[in-house]
Amino acid sequence: MITVPVPLGGGRGYDVLVGPGARHRLLEVLPVGAHRAAVVTQPGVDVVVDAGVEQRTFLMPEGEEAKCLETVEELCRAWARWGLTRADVVVAVGGGVVTDAAGFAAAVYHRGVAVVHVPTTLLGQVDAAIGGKTGVNLPEGKNLVGAFWQPSAVLCDVDVLATLPPREYRSGLGEMAKYAFLGVHDLPDLPLDEAVAACVRCKAEHIAADERETTGRRALLNYGHTLAHALETAGHYDLRHGEAVAIGLVFAARLARRLGRVDDGTVAEHERVVAGYGLPATVPAGHDPAELVTLMARDKKAVDGLTFVLDGPRGVEVVAGVPPDVVEATLRERS
Ligand SMILES: NC(=O)c1ccc[n+]([C@@H]2O[C@H](COP(=O)([O-])OP(=O)(O)OC[C@H]3O[C@@H](n4cnc5c(N)ncnc54)[C@H](O)[C@@H]3O)[C@@H](O)[C@H]2O)c1
């Protein structure tokens, strides 16, 4: 088992356990004194956990549409009927949809109850379950309501990934591709548990440096995400998150080239990494570039005009005030 610590300020922090069978370590990572465990999962997630204390399972619906305020209300009401208290723990077992929504419900129920994440998708293990960003979507956009709520522990059991549909697995590779541009090398050559742990370690470093995304370091984890979120909203989530990120990564490289920040070689490298994972690199036909620009302007990072994470001479950094016509022209590029 690989243990990756996530150190936070003020002596806080937690461990991420990565490896085969990690879900069986649940009892030992429960917060001290936890009486009962509210296990939140979905019908399609066939992963059993044993908290070793009294537990009850609360099912939430499938799909990105289920990551909404109504689900949070349903969970909180069901927990209230069961009598969940702050001395108890929520255990989120599922992909990013479950850990984001259940994590947010845990953040606001009784003004905060402990949560342990057991991510069951590759995307959840390398990204969504790590770092304490929780939240839900609004019809107006993705992740517009949320809270920072750090888990007590995260258990990344690579065994459970065996049942993932191939498209979901590939989607996780989209977030993995992102880490390749944030300094994690040789990911495709590593055994799965080590590759997951390498991504978690990279994310942990960014979070330790900037837990609440105030200095800009953590925002680098959003590489490829500005366009990705717009594509997901415009397409009503017909793309999987990691597919959208893959397109967003290549787009970010092309935008950086148009702005004179990188050369053709950098764009080619982005295309090579994304293609190597069998992921798409171009915006699917039918999207209106002007609509995508409008959606990107609504992004949470867009405090000063259009804001992107872009590669450049100083490496990957947050760039504000990117002119909309340059963004739109890049979207219209064919290659
Ligand atoms: N909080 C963060 O920092 C963060 C980071 C990245 C992504 N996210 C969010 O994560 C979400 C996407 O997560 P996702 O890609 O995991 O999608 P998902 O949670 O919808 O899971 C994908 C599908 O796989 C099924 N599934 C899950 N585990 C399975 C298993 N072991 N075997 C078989 N099927 C299984 C689920 O039931 C679901 O149908 C998005 O909403 C995204 O915004 C959050």
For the sheet with most strands, the description reads:
7 strands, mixed
The fraction of residues in strands falls at 15-25%
* Spatial ordering of strands, largest sheet: 1-2-9-6-5-3-4
According to DSSP, the number of beta strands is 11
What level of helicity do the residues show?
25-40%
Concise overview:
The chain contains 11 helices and 11 strands.
Quick tags:
335 residues; alpha/beta; binds nicotinamide-adenine-dinucleotide; two-stranded antiparallel sheet; globular; seven-stranded mixed β-sheet; 39% helix; 11 helices
Structural features, described:
This protein is 39% helix and 20% strand. The chain contains eleven helices and eleven strands. The chain has helices spanning 26-29, 69-82, 96-108, 122-128, 166-180, 192-209, 225-234, 241-258, 264-276, 289-297, 324-332; strands spanning 2-7, 13-19, 36-41, 54-59, 89-94, 114-119, 133-138, 141-148, 153-157, 306-310, 317-322. The strands form three sheets. Strands 1-2-9-6-5-3-4 form a seven-stranded mixed sheet. A two-stranded antiparallel ribbon has the order 7-8. Helix 4 (122-128) packs parallel to helix 5 (166-180) and helix 10 crosses helix 11. The longest helix is centred in the middle third of the chain and has 18 residues, at 192-209. The N and C termini lie far apart (43 Å). Bound molecules: nicotinamide-adenine-dinucleotide. Nicotinamide-adenine-dinucleotide is lined by residues 42, 44-45, 47, 62, 64, 67, 94-98, 100, 120-121, 123-124, 127-128, 131, 133, 143, 160, 163-164, 168, 171, 241. Nicotinamide-adenine-dinucleotide binds at residues 42, 44-45, 47, 62, 64, 67, 94-98, 100, 120-121, 123-124, 127-128, 131, 133, 143, 160, 163-164, 168, 171, 241.
